[in-house]
Amino acid sequence: MTDLNVGCESPSAAAATGSDDPAKARITEILPGILLLRAELPFALDHVNIYLIAEDDGWAIVDTGVDDARTRAVFAQLLEGPLKGQRFSRLIATHHHPDHIGLAGWLCAEYDLRLFTSLSAYLASLTLRGNPERLGRAFYAAYYRRHGMTAAQAKSLQGWPEHYRELVGTPPPEFTRLLAGDRLKLGHREFEILTGDGHAPEQLMLYCAAEGLLLAGDQVLMRISPNISVDPTGPESDPLGHYLRSLENLRGRVPDGTLVLPGHHKPFRALHARIGELQEQHRQRLETILRACGDSELSVGDLVPVLFSRPLDGFQLGFAFGEAHAHVNRLVHDGRLKRSSSDDGIRYRISPD
Ligand SMILES: [Zn+2]
């Protein structure tokens, strides 16, 4: 599929044209047979990168955008315009977050596609979409209150499971599992499946060693730091430890200079330098928490404003709280903080050992 007339434009050229064809304006050709489609998102982070990879029988889609009318229209317009006469061949989702898997159910039904993803991503989207009662308002409120959030703040965050449901359609009834070490042939390219953890369980990355190419999902982003949060279903888990370990594995596995195609913002090559920056940023946050604890016992809620001094709306507060908790748990797991529980909630102090 080399004879492709998609009218690709660089992002700056697309903006300059002021095109009123949304599908055309958002497409960039990264390499022959690899297109980047920038889909809008209804959040502060206002876009997600969707990649299209040429196969013999059509275009494999990597990640979906959220399930809303605007994103559905973008895919429909692609096949009416830039990719007219062509088809989609399959769907690959890197992880279970709404902007990466939200439209999977609709895409698979509409274009008769099979979903390829990790078991963790499939089960997480199935559970959160299909059984939100298990993670209802009372469950979330209890978690936040136990960890020191004010009642008013906790109330503002109780709608999270419902929010996921609004952005993610019912997942397709079948999928093909991808596991670390699997090989996936897309057109003439062979990708090795790598997985990373911490941002999302078992997040998929597609690595083409022959071409020096890594589709990284949200595991490493250039302009923003991937959110690393404790989930209320695993309040004593160590996602930051998992993330830092995954970064080290990635540094050892993927050479510097590899072209990284991330889930947000522009592709980049400085993978190892970026991994170093992310590690340093987390190290500084861990130090900040240790300093703040001093001789006092603090809750996660107490530590949120220590780490994040800017005002936070309800949505940002959820991410900030989860991120603060992830750093606290890293320090508990490596023995630098001690956790104590009372009727009053859960607090942390410097470990005496
Ligand atoms: Zn994500």
Automatic annotation (TrEMBL):
One of its GO terms (molecular function) is hydrolase activity. InterPro entries: B_lactamase-like_C (IPR048933), Metallo-B-lactamas (IPR001279), RibonucZ/Hydroxyglut_hydro (IPR036866), Sec-metab_biosynth-thioest (IPR050662), WH-like_DNA-bd_sf (IPR036388). Residues 47-264 form the Metallo-beta-lactamase domain. Keywords: Hydrolase. It holds the Pfam family B_lactamase-like_C. Residues 1-20 are annotated as: Disordered. The keyword Lipid biosynthesis does not apply. SMART domains: Lactamase_B. This is MBL fold metallo-hydrolase. The lineage of its organism: Bacteria, Pseudomonadati, Pseudomonadota, Alphaproteobacteria, Rhodobacterales.
